[in-house]
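seq as requested:
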Amino acid sequence: MELAEKFISEMNFDLSAFIFDILIPCFLALIFGGLIGFQREKAERPAGLRTHTLVCLGSTVLTLISYLGFSSMAGTDPSRIAAGVVTGIGFIGAGAIFRQGTLVKGITTAASIWIVAAIGMALGTKLYYLAVMATVLGFLTLSILKYVEEKIIKPPDYTVKITTLENFTEFDKLINLLKQISLTVESKKYEIDDENNKRILTVNISSKQSGFSNLVIRRLGRVKGIEKITVN
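struct tokens:
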């Protein structure tokens, strides 16, 4: 009986505290994390809407546990949980990074996961203005700066012309090899040279890879059936 009474006393429900201390931070975590996640989802990145929303919500909840659950306990350090969130989020971010050929991709997505975790921690400690500012700046960085990169800091464009034998059929393999060492394949064109019994593949691509021309020749030169490779 005493155990039940003690349990009921500890379960006293304060509506006002629930709304302002728990409901609002968690609800804002869904919105702010979802906003960043929506941008990543729209860009077709490996971590999208659900991942960013859950990371933001999870970091908010853990910070609330630290902020509300341990701050009143003598001899405890409430910042330890927050420090664990910072460490743990690195493992999730690392899972979004992968290597494709000579390029490393997913670093921006990992950084976006890191920032939504920081936003969640700000919400968990009720630093709402900081959370709003970080969300707006993070969203603008992911959307607008991408446009600036493409328009102002555009990587060099290359035209790769590959001449093959008439019976060559592995053009998809050539395209995949080029994708591994380039940022984007902007266009491709197939031609048939009946006079010389050749097939010609012309691909326009952009790449920041240093020594791109030599790398293309080394990679594609291993494929049987290729007679000539020209990179402009």
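Residues 15-42 form the longest helix (28 residues).
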